[in-house]
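Q: For a teaching handout, I want to show students what a protein-ligand complex looks like in token form. Below are the inputs, and the small molecule is molybdenum atom. Please produce the holo structure.
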Amino acid sequence: MQSTSTPTHCPYCALQCGMNLTPAQQGGVEVRDRTDFPVNRGALCGKGRTAPQVLSSRVRLTSPLVRAGDGTLAPATWDEALDRITGELTRIRAEHGADALGVFGGGGLTNEKAYALGKFARVVLGTSQIDYNGRFCMSSAAAAGIKAFGLDRGLPFPLEDIPRTGCVILVGSNPAETMPPALRYFTELRANGGTLIVVDPRRTRTAEQADLHLAPRPGTDLALALGLLHLVVAEGRTDEEYIQRRTSGWEEARAAAMAHWPEYVERITGVPVPQLREAVRLFCEPEHAMVLTARGPEQQSKGTDTVGAWINLCLATGRAGRPLSGYGCLTGQGNGQGGREHGQKADQLPGYRKLDDPAARAHVAGVWGVDPDSLPGPGRSAYELLDALGGDIRSLLLMGSNPVVSAPRAAHVEERLRSLEFLAVCDVVLSETAALADVVLPVTQWAEETGTTTNLEGRVLLRRRALTPPDGVRSDLEVMHGIAARLGVEKGFPTDPEEVFEELRRASAGGPADYSGITYRRLAEENGVFWPCPGGAEPGEGGALDAPGAGREEGGSPDAGAGLGEDASLDAPGADDPARDGDGGAGAHPHPGTPRLFLDGFATPDGRARFVPVTHRAAAEEPDDEYPVLLTTGRVVAQYQSGAQTRRVDELNAAAPSAFVELHPRLAVRLGTAEGDPVAVVSRRGRAVAPARITPHIRPDTVFMPFHWPGAGRANTLTNPALDPTSRMPEFKVCAVRLERA
Ligand SMILES: Nc1nc2c(c(=O)[nH]1)N[C@H]1C(S)=C(S)[C@@H](COP(=O)(O)OP(=O)(O)OC[C@H]3O[C@@H](n4cnc5c(=O)[nH]c(N)nc54)[C@H](O)[C@@H]3O)O[C@H]1N2
Ligand SMILES: Nc1nc2c(c(=O)[nH]1)N[C@H]1C(S)=C(S)[C@@H](COP(=O)(O)OP(=O)(O)OC[C@H]3O[C@@H](n4cnc5c(=O)[nH]c(N)nc54)[C@H](O)[C@@H]3O)O[C@H]1N2
Ligand code: SF4
Ligand SMILES: [Mo]
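A: Here is the structure, written as tokens, with molybdenum atom included.
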């Protein structure tokens, strides 16, 4: 049995737990513990344990589907399906131009797929209109991280550092439900004498483990962070030497914070002043401390400023770019980190390069063998793109997302999707969005294909193929290859993931997220490698792969190498040769990778972290007489995202069968509702109905709904698509509603 066991990683969240897959007696594979992967050391949540059930052809798609004349989706051959797609795309492009072709990706796609999708949109379709669901996820934290540190990597340190710090503030993060195996890092922190502060309007299972639980009104984290910084200054707890030496912009940030008096902050947030003081004491007294944010403070129309305020708190107290201290964002999707680095984002090129940077364009165009001027400019952000469907954008190719359930103001998005001239969806199951498509392509899944993901720590990992996919399905890479070939692009879209990764290495070389020193072989041998990992993959120099680091300065500034574009050329012999030695970067002295960032300086031009002066502002929608209650949304442990995959697993459905409305007993009494009664939640966007779940563990002014279900209980029927001005993140975490008995 041992010899046939394949070490790989879970298909779902950003923890990317390690697991072994072994052939099962009844066919398919089963999950076995894999204890050699340090992040989870064998522990898995129920979703990971049951993931093989979604591989079964009982629940998945095994044939392309094409919408027939009578309006139904009918099985078709791959040729018919791909011909239909290319026919429609060609027609629409001829009639309305390339920007009428939209592309939507996902943070669950492997690095290879995300990279290929961004290239496909720009090189094959020639469209600027590509973005992805990660915009709904951690984009505010990414924007704030880039502003402050010059670089966005979710965690700038490995999870293993958490138990050794002195205090962690976990802001709007519920790992007990969203990353159960990670909870042990916080338990160990407390066992070692450190303290945990949880900031969440609900007393979650995570908050129950905290030394201090702050329960602010949803949408007020910005004021909360500013209030804490005010107290840090007032109590003389700033680290002046650090501020002088390693930061810029303190005076403005300090002045902004000083306007946020504790009593004023208590009024906005509902968090009592003594709790604010206690939080400051717990955070400042130990030598090391961390702030970690997740979707609570980020999914707000001021998410970027909010994360900026928490970073300011870290900077003022000298807690960033030092061992065992720092700010981090707990990224969410399986490849939430890598998926935001390699070009499926509207404004981005691989290696976390900027699409509007001429040097970046020249470099990447060189790797792609195209004229830099042929690359389109930045396109619309995810919600703006979905909102434009049926208007400027006439067709959509969608891969790795289910926006009918997961997008804000979902009824409107659903209506926009229906108004398209042409919709093509690649998925493993017939998701609610796939059900609207004109063509549905059934694709291979995690355990049936090889590829890399980058987990929430910035650790690049190898997922391995463990079984043969069923007849009738093809990989996303084969889909892109097939469409490209039909559109006359014969080269540049290989179907072998390792070949794509080799190109990704060259495209990322010299960029902020530099993967050029990483190879499949290293990933297999080293159990993952942290980026940046430069070296060994000079553009246009296939042979140089054998000489790691040749001609490159390791650890240079993120922009070093951007000028390499000039000599980058696909014409160089060997540059495109798939047979080339795949372990090039793993020579005698490969770059070790970078588990811990910023210890010697930040990735800004002057090496200093930048304070951002921010002040509190209200949510886009505040309660009023008509809509007096706040709605916030999130997750439960047994379902994943839009539920497209996990709603197909019996034991997960048994644990979490439907949406619910979590509300405080006082609110329930006022409404005259008992446990389990259907409650209608009404916002300016629409109405959802779900059973009441009454608990004292939520603020009385707030209700909570998980967003995993379509239909009557769809939370996103209600949510507000108000966007953060910088990150374009929608405000999933706060809108105004009223409750009715249903
Ligand atoms: N079981 C499960 N696990 C998952 C996922 C899943 O769908 N299901 N998805 C994965 C993905 S993509 C992601 S992004 C992560 C998300 O992981 P988390 O961010 O941990 O998940 P959420 O439940 O969205 O939000 C976290 C908490 O924010 C709180 N919150 C709501 N409003 C506010 C607010 O205004 N301020 C503050 N401070 N807190 C607030 C909620 O009460 C909730 O407990 O989970 C990943 N893991
Ligand atoms: N109200 C509310 N809404 C939210 C959130 C919230 O907190 N509250 N959170 C937001 C966040 S953080 C996120 S990340 C989004 C996520 O929401 P979605 O973008 O809808 O994410 P998933 O449900 O994971 O959808 C992935 C789809 O791709 C399919 N799939 C899986 N793997 C592959 C693959 O390799 N190739 C292809 N082609 N398809 C694949 C799955 O079957 C599924 O249908 O939801 C957002 N929506
Ligand atoms: S915590 Fe995340 S990665 Fe780990 S088993 Fe559960 S879903 Fe999979
Ligand atoms: Mo996410």
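A: Two things your students might notice: The chain has a mean pLDDT of 93. The pocket of MGD (ligand 2) is lined by residues 106-109, 133, 136-137, 295, 299, 332-333, 399-403, 405-406, 426-429, 431, 443, 476, 633-634, 641-642, 644-645, 707, 715-716, 719, 732 (CB under 6 Å).
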